[in-house]
Every structure is written in structure tokens, then in C-alpha cells.
Amino acid sequence: MKPSLTLYLAAPRGFCAGVDRAIKIVEMAIEKWGAPVYVRHEIVHNKYVVDSLRDQGAVFVEELDECPDDRPVIFSAHGVPKSVPAEASRREMIYVDATCPLVSKVHKEAERHSNEGLQMVMIGHAGHPEVLGTMGQLPDGEVLLVETVEDVAKITPRDPDRLAFITQTTLSVDDTAAIVTALQDRFPKIVGPAKEDICYATTNRQASVKAMADQIDALLVIGAPNSSNSRRLVEVGKASGCAYSQLVQRAADIDWRALEGVQTVGVTAGASAPEVLIDEVIDAFRQRYDLTVDQIETAREDIEFKVPRVLREAS
């Protein structure tokens, strides 16, 4: 007989509106212009998604100079520095910007504050494409990056009374709150965003993990190792009391030995992980356990972002 196990599914989980829009942009571009269509950086951080789009005719590159002038290029959901579309325009390339609208909102915030004479402090992870894209909206030196509370003490702004802060959209809500407090303590006049920059999907997925953490023996987060929001879900699980919180790309990555003896497992997915991978994990558990599946819903999402007009127009 199979051992009994209850699987708790977090809701919401998986694709957010920005990821869904970015994938549609690539698919519609291939349909409109034919293959190949070039994509600067992974359109979203998920191998399954990237491989699927590659099979349809997308070619993924890291820099614009790897793209020919005569083929369309798409900029990833994470956003790009201003210099990238400027260079694409100079080369007279067809390009489509798939930057998530919530990331674009942060870009506009940074520009607005800069135009008002404020130097920016960005809370984010060094080297992440979103951070590179956001910092690249302003001239060198106009954005100071902090990753931790400790970093706040190390920055040297040109005028401590003329600062504003922005954040990466996929950070830990709790960790970011601590950094914001440190910034406000050191720079009392620092200006914050009208509405927090961490996106609704990141916030919702972290809240659902917190809600299930005290009911589960283990947590599996379906997502890619380079997915910031997925890695934050693992951290939130551990911080909320679920010591065994692991990131898996798909069912084949599950360490079944580590789960021996557990009776309850929570499953969630980062914002760039498709539902097909969640179904795959559920099926893998069903093969090994007498499975009960329950859902813990903490929010409902009905946000949808339109694709750019150039793709909605007839060819």
C-alpha cells in the first residue's frame, strides 16, 4: 500500500500577468514575422518556457550585437538599459519591448525623481537583469545599489537630503521592509514610491507560503535557480518555520529520500513557472502516495496586461 500524504497547493502560484504577456509577445512575434525572432536574454527565467519558445523559432542571445539587423528582436520581461533600444533604433531594427509594465513603472519613477534632482537608491540584487535594466535608465552614478541592511551604512550619496529609493519588483517583502527602515533611519528625508515597487504577484505568492508554512512538513517551490522571485519563496518558507524548503525545476529534481516520513507537503511555483510543471509534480506524488490534494488560497488575481500595439495590428 502507498503511504498517505496531503499536498497543499498555494494559490496564487505560477505565471503572473507580466510573464504571461512576455510569452505571448514572443509567440505573436514569431507568428507575425516568422522565425527566427531574436530575444535579448531569457524572456522569463524558466528553462521549460525558454526551450518551448526556442522550438517555435525564438533565438535567445545575451547582447544586441548578437542579433542581425534584419530580424526582429524582443527585450525580456526584466527590462533593459536605455542604451539597448537606442542602439536598436540606430541600427533601424524592428524591436518589441516585453518589459513587465510593473518594472516599467519603476523605470518611470526613477526618471521622475532624477528629473527632480534626487539621487536614487535601489534595493535589489547586483547583476540581476531587472536591476541592470533599472539602473541603466539613468546616467552612471545616479543609482546607488544596496542589497542588505548592512549596505545602507556603506553608501555615500552626494547629498543625504536629496535621495529617493526604488526596489526590484521580485524581492522578499520582509527583507525589503527592513532595508527601507534602515534607509529611513539614516536618511530621514529620503523619498519612497507612492506605491511599493514589489509587484502584486511576488507579494501574493509569498503570502500564500506564509499561510501554509505551519501546516506542512516540507515545501517545494517550482522555479528556476536564476528566478529571483522563486528563490525568495524558498527563503520565505524557511523563515516562516518550514525548515525543509527546496527549489525544484520540475518533478525529476525532487529528492524523494528527503521526503521519507513526511505527511504534508506544500507546493508553490514562482511567477515564471507554467502550470504544466505543477501538474507534473502532482502526478509524481500521486504515483508514490495515496494522495489528498488541497488548496490554500490567500488571494485571487485577475490582472491582464495588453501586448504592444505593433503585435495587435494585422501584418
Automatic annotation (TrEMBL):
Q: Where does (2E)-4-hydroxy-3-methylbut-2-enyl diphosphate bind?
A: 45, 78, 128, 169, 227-229, 272
Query: GO terms for molecular function, please?
Result: 4-hydroxy-3-methylbut-2-enyl diphosphate reductase activity
Q: Which CDD domains match?
A: lytB_ispH (cd13944)
Annotated pathway: Isoprenoid biosynthesis; dimethylallyl diphosphate biosynthesis; dimethylallyl diphosphate from (2E)-4-hydroxy-3-methylbutenyl diphosphate: step 1/1; Isoprenoid biosynthesis; isopentenyl diphosphate biosynthesis via DXP pathway; isopentenyl diphosphate from 1-deoxy-D-xylulose 5-phosphate: step 6/6
Q: Span of the secretion signal?
A: none
Q: Does the keyword Iron-sulfur apply?
A: yes
Q: Which domain of life is it from?
A: Bacteria
Q: Which reactions does this protein catalyse?
A: isopentenyl diphosphate + 2 oxidized [2Fe-2S]-[ferredoxin] + H2O = (2E)-4-hydroxy-3-methylbut-2-enyl diphosphate + 2 reduced [2Fe-2S]-[ferredoxin] + 2 H(+); dimethylallyl diphosphate + 2 oxidized [2Fe-2S]-[ferredoxin] + H2O = (2E)-4-hydroxy-3-methylbut-2-enyl diphosphate + 2 reduced [2Fe-2S]-[ferredoxin] + 2 H(+)
Q: Where does dimethylallyl diphosphate bind?
A: 45, 78, 128, 227-229, 272
What is annotated as the active site?
130
The UniProt entry, under PANTHER family, shows: 4-HYDROXY-3-METHYLBUT-2-ENYL DIPHOSPHATE REDUCTASE
The protein here is known as: 4-hydroxy-3-methylbut-2-enyl diphosphate reductase
